[in-house]
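Deliverable D5.2: sample structural annotation.
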Amino acid sequence: MFYYSSIADYLNNKSHCFNSEFIVTLKSKNRPFLQLADDEDLKNQYSFLIQRDKRLYEIGFPLIQVADFETNKSLTQLINIETKQGEIIKFYLKDEVLDETQLTNNEDLANLL
């Protein structure tokens, strides 16, 4: 199993291997992808994995609880994905919060352009 840290990496075929000694952090705003090897299958279905091809998944951000964000002050989650072959892949998935002010400012800016 390997990953593309962004949609740009996927389009440019720049894949990366997971390393058991270091847990990588992926940013969901970059639209990362997960690619299974030919001999790999997922043990479970994961709601945040959006299948784009037979063995290719876009990694979406899992649902979070507001209380989790308020407690941890972070939108970073440790993700564990298990294959039927017994391999467990771990990575951090990080996201950003957009609040009403940011959205309003972006809309106002877009209208000016």
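Annotation notes: The first strand starts at residue 2 and ends at 4. The longest helix spans residues 100-112.
The annotation will be released with the project's public dataset once the embargo ends.
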